[in-house]
Amino acid sequence: MTLLRLEGVSVRFGGRAAVDAVDLEVAEHETVCVLGPSGSGKSTLLRVVAGLQPVSGGRVLLDGADQAGVPVHRRGVGLMFQDHQLFPHRDVGGNVAFGLRMRGAAGRGAYGSRVAELLELVGLPGAQGRAVASLSGGEQQRVALARALAPSPRLLMLDEPLGQLDRGLRERLVVELRGLFARLGTTVLAVTHDQGEAFALADRVVVMRDGRIAQAGTPLEVWQRPASEFVARFLGFENVVPAVVSGGVADTAWGKVPVPDGAPEGAQRVLIRPAGVTVGADGLRCEVLSRTFRGTHVALLLGPEAGPVLEAECGLAGAPAVGDRVAVSFAPAEVVVLPPQ
Ligand SMILES: Nc1ncnc2c1ncn2[C@@H]1O[C@H](COP(=O)(O)OP(=O)(O)OP(=O)(O)O)[C@@H](O)[C@H]1O
Q1: Does this entry carry the keyword Nucleotide-binding (predicted)?
Q2: pLDDT value of position 141
Q3: Residue 18 Cα to ligand 1 middle (Å)
Q4: To test ligand 1's pocket by mutation, which of 43, 82, 192, 195 has the most ligand atoms within 8 angstroms of CB?
Q5: Whose CA is nearest to atom 17 of ligand 1?
Q6: CA of 213 to the centre of ligand 1 (A)
Q7: ipTM
Q8: How far apart are alpha carbons 332 and 335 in whole angstroms?
Q9: CB-based contact 250:268 (threshold 8 Å)
Q10: C-alpha span between 260 and 113 (Å, rounded)
Q11: What's the CA-to-centroid distance between 114 and ligand 1, angstroms?
């Protein structure tokens, strides 16, 4: 069932559309992550849903009810922002209880057990009495989450939820959040500029560009089939060149590249994901310009004898060294013929 529906939502500041005729649905129990470069309209979209930003056009519906004129505190949405805005003068319990009081969600006596339950849920059991200032960044994030979850919002909205935390902690928390949302059946609309975070957290990602949706789909769909060169580059793929496609082969600056069956023919732009650039004995000759250890693989930057630099991936064992001369071939499964801009 659809919980949130945006119909042609636009927000204009001066003459400029920050959000431009956006249609979006979020189903109950679904986690949707809105992703996009700075200024693409992500936060504005979130603020619209929360009721913090009036629309210039279109409608926001929650459970089928038009939210026009419904104030923030009556929308039943929970908000957690990047700078988590905890009250420094209240202890942890006081901060979480604030989330309950805002909604009048429980009688005063019931706060204590609900706060305890929420702190347990976010992995901070017994932290009620701790001062906010004594918490690490990750712990503060958990308290902010407990506070946002306190009134059991029908929609939880997160704006750059893990933005300030270091990478290792972010990766751990993302996994925890995903598990928590699945257990609670929470419906989540999150905004992030970090594609790794979005892909790890979301059932569906929505990539925004200049106030519009450039692509929406499951993480796998978007990763495997970026809908445009913009999306491909935003995901960090740099191997994009013009090509003429004919008979299952793309003619590119790197030579002939096999394309998947059924790819559109004619003048196109082609993406080769680094995983599809295979280092071997035959093929396009290249010099290794750099190599970067990535944990599970080695990322190579190659200078080919023809065409622009190429990104490739190879296994840790036997990775070539900088300055080595190698040859590469291309795997059609990792080649995407991109739609015209
Ligand atoms: N209150 C405002 N008044 C005028 N312009 C605004 C206002 N809020 C946002 N904008 C503009 O609208 C556009 C979208 O901003 P928004 O904050 O939604 O982008 P974003 O994708 O969330 O960016 P970031 O990742 O940097 O937070 C930007 O060009 C921004 O400058």
Answers
A1: yes
A2: 85
A3: 6
A4: 43
A5: 43
A6: 15
A7: 0.96
A8: 5
A9: yes
A10: 57
A11: 36
pTM of the entire structure?
0.88
Neighbours of 102 (CB within 10 A): 14
Q: Which residues contact 141 (CB under 8 A, 6 or more apart)?
A: 84, 161, 162, 165, 173
Structure tokens at 319: 């990775």
Residue nearest atom 16 in ligand 1 by C-alpha distance: 41
Place of tokens 């071939």: 329
Lining ligand 1 with CB less than 6 A are 13, 18, 36, 38-44, 193
CA–CA separation, 159 and 189 (whole Å): 9
> Alpha carbon of 240 to those of 233, 314, 332: distances in Å?
8, 19, 14
* Position 265, amino acid: E
Which pLDDT tens digit goes with each residue over 228-284? Answer: 999 999 999 999 999 999 999 999 999 999 999 999 999 999 999 999 999 988 999
- Lookup: tokens for 248: 């299952």
Q: Do the beta carbons of residue 313 and residue 320 sit within 8 Å?
A: no
Locate the DSSP E strands across the chain. Answer: 2-13, 16-27, 31-35, 57-62, 65-66, 77-80, 155-159, 188-192, 204-209, 212-217, 240-246, 249-252, 255-258, 266-272, 277-280, 284-293, 298-304, 310-314, 325-330, 335-338
Specify whether the CB–CB gap between 21 and 11 falls below 8 A.
Answer: no
Query: In angstroms, what is the span from residue 43 Cα to ligand 1's centroid?
Result: 7
pLDDT per position as a tens digit, 182-214: 988 999 999 998 888 899 999 999 999 999 999
In whole angstroms, give the CA distance from residue 51 to residue 64.
16
Torsional class of 53: left (φ above 0), alpha (ψ -120 to 50), beta (otherwise): beta
Q: In the predicted model, what is the mean pLDDT of residues 320-328?
A: 96
Which of ligand 1's atoms lies nearest the C-alpha of 41? Answer: 18
* Number of helical (H) and strand (E) elements in the chain, helices listed first: 8, 20
Q: How far apart are CA 195 and CA 155, in angstroms?
A: 22
Question: What spacing in Å lies between the alpha carbon of 330 and ligand 1's midpoint?
Answer: 40
